[in-house]
Write a structure and sequence with these properties.
about 120 residues, mainly alpha, two-stranded antiparallel sheet, 6 helices
């Protein structure tokens, strides 16, 4: 979608930039977008037109959304196999991961999720 705003209407969350369900970023982007939109409107509360706030919101959010929408090559084909062989392979892999307790082990070594992307300070 080329722009998320037109006139006095702005799109937020899945309505504007629905990331792939595989990315797991839908809620994070929606909440971040809501915070940024509220902050940009607050910064320009004396303006009679919200258009500048909407444009700033899009400038702040567009890089985050673009980053979240990118998937590694081959990921959709792995997660949504199209053949019986691919489905058997996926089920076997998921079964092995569950049986091996690999997620529990890896979780101990991983840091908190989230990025180093800093949001602008809006004072609320």
């Amino acid at each position: 979608m080329p722009t998320w705003c037109k006139g006095r209407v702005v799109l937020l969350g899945d309505a504007g930039y629905c990331p792939s369900p595989i990315s797991g970023m839908g809620t994070s982007l929606a909440l971040t977008g809501a915070c940024v939109l509220a902050g940009e409107i607050l910064k320009r509360k004396d303006d009679s037109s919200p258009a500048m706030a909407f444009e700033s919101y899009e400038e702040v959010m567009r890089p985050r959304v673009d980053k979240a929408q990118k998937l590694a090559p081959g990921v959709p084909a792995m997660i949504y196999p199209q053949t019986t062989w691919g489905l058997m392979l996926l089920r076997g892999l998921v079964g092995f991961i569950g049986w091996s307790r690999l997620p529990t082990i890896l979780q101990k070594f991983s840091g908190p999720s989230g990025g180093d992307d800093k949001l602008p300070e809006y004072g609320f």
